[in-house]
Structures are given as C-alpha cells and as structure tokens.
Amino acid sequence: MTASGVSERRARWVGGFSVLACVLSVLALLTLVRSALTMTYLNVHFADEIDPLSRAVSYYVFVERGAELFDAALLAVACATATILAGLAQLRVRVGARATVLFGAWCVALVLCVLFPTDNSPRIETASGWIHQFAGASLFGTLPLAGLALARVLATQPPWARTARVLRALALGAVVLALGYLAARLPDLLPWWQFPGALDWRAISGLIQRALFTLELAMLLVLAARLLRVSWAAVRSGRQRDHTLAAP
User: Which Pfam family name is an example for this entry (predicted)?
Assistant: First the structure.
C-alpha cells in the first residue's frame, strides 16, 4: 500500500472517531438537560412536601412518583458522564488516570444512591441509609476533584485550554459549596454536640446542596458542549479534506 493510501485510510479512521465523538456529545447534552429539567420539576412540584431550603434531594424518593423521577435523573447523569469520557477517548483527548478514577467513583456513587435510598427519618437507622449517606457524601467531593484534575490536564492541550479554565472555576466553586454543605450537616452528624445558633446552617442545607449539584451539572455540560464543538470541527475538516482529495 502506498503512503497516500495509508494516509487516506488513517484519515477515514480519524473521521469515523470524530463522528462517534460528535454523536456521544449530543447524547450527553440531551441526557444532562433532561436530568436538569427533572430535578427542577421535583424542586418546584414538591416544594410543599420537601422544603428545598432545608431538605436534601434524597427525600424526593418518598413522594408520589418521586423515586422514579429522582432515580432516573441520577442514572442519566452517570450515563452522561461515561458518555463524555467515551467521547473524549474517541478524540484522543488526554484525561489522566487521577481524573478517570474520580469520574468513575462519581458514577459508582450515583448508582449506589439509587440502589440504596436514605431513611425517611431524622436519623439514619438502616444499612441502606448509611450506604446512601456515604455514597452521597462522596458525590460532592469526587466530581469537583475530578474537574480540577481534568482541568490541569486539559490546560496543556490547546483546543481545550479555555475549557480547562472554565472547568477549574466551576470545580473550585463546587469545592467551596461542598465544604459549606458538610458544615451545614455537622449538627446531624454530631447530634451529641451543642452547636451555636450561628453555626447551625441546617435551615439552608438543602439550598447549598442544590446549588452544589447545579455547579456539578454545569461542569458536565461545559465538557459535553466543548466536546461537541471540537468533534464537529474535526468532522467538517475531514469532509473538506475529502472534497479536496476528490477534486480533479
């Protein structure tokens, strides 16, 4: 096979990977948008039953049809995360081992939160409730840390440098909110400790959690949107190259 034939075959493979990455990015975007709409619906429709300022989103599983919608939203986010990573792999974008492990832990934690619902009581009393608590706690740490690790790697790749800056800013904001949510939950985690009123943030713990989840969704949306732009640019470039080679 001649050198030109090898180059043409390689270009076809690259073009195929770019198309697949483009499809994966669209799927991820649609899935994330649907999850965001579902969570918004739960927050608004059940505001009288689950106070969005003080109650965690996990309690939506105890309202009518809430479990179905809530579980579907979490599983969709896990699938979207895996889809984004698969799309990045198609474009040969370096992610790094640390970010990959943290993204994987985030997906596992989402699935565990679905499989093991929390207890509908002021205190955790069952194994399912404890698994949910630990998985939920890891949710708010793994993705921000994954975002920071990924931003560090993407910053060295020119097409992704700007995305890395946006991702880093969102991840840092998520870290701050994660620490704030932990502080708000301390009176529940340490019931024997008398907290001063100024340090008892349970009245807004639900709001902090929802703000944190919003930032985490924004991180994934930024990655999916950039993946779509880069992959679509690669597809168009491949088509233009094919037209040039086909021209007499």
Answer: DUF998
Instruction: Give the Cα separation of 189 and 208 in Å (integer).
Output: 17
Q: Which domain holds residue 217?
A: 8-242
In the chain, the number of structural domains is 1
Q: 245 is written with which tokens?
A: 């080679």
**232 to each of 26, 62, 81, 237, how far by Cα in Å?**
10, 42, 19, 9
Cα atoms in the Cβ-side hemisphere of radius 13 Å centred on 76: 21
Residues 25-35 have pLDDT tens digits of 999 999 999 99
Burial environment of residue 226 by CB neighbours within 10 A (0 to 12, 13 to 18, 19 or more): buried
The reply to whether 248 falls in a domain is: no
Would 3 be classed as within a structural domain?
no
C-alpha closest to that of 74 among 113, 18, 41, 118: 113
Q: List all residues 6 or more positions away from 201 whose beta carbon is below 8 Å from its beta carbon.
A: 180, 183, 184, 208
**Nearest Cα residue to 32 out of 226, 221, 173:** 221
**By the 8 A CB rule, do 4 and 206 touch?**
no
Q: How far apart are CA 53 and CA 31, in angstroms?
A: 26
Residue 42 lies in a domain: yes
What's the pLDDT tens digit per position in 160-197?
999 999 999 999 999 999 998 887 776 666 565 566 65
- The predicted model scores a pTM of 0.86
